[in-house]
Amino acid sequence: YRVDLVLWREILGNVTDALYLKPTLRYDIFDGLSLRLALVYSQAFFAASTPSTTHRPLGIELDAGLHYASDDGFRAWVDWGALQPLDGLGYGPNRPAAAQDVARGHAVRTGLAVKF
Question: Residue 12 has what pLDDT?
Answer without folding.
Answer: 82
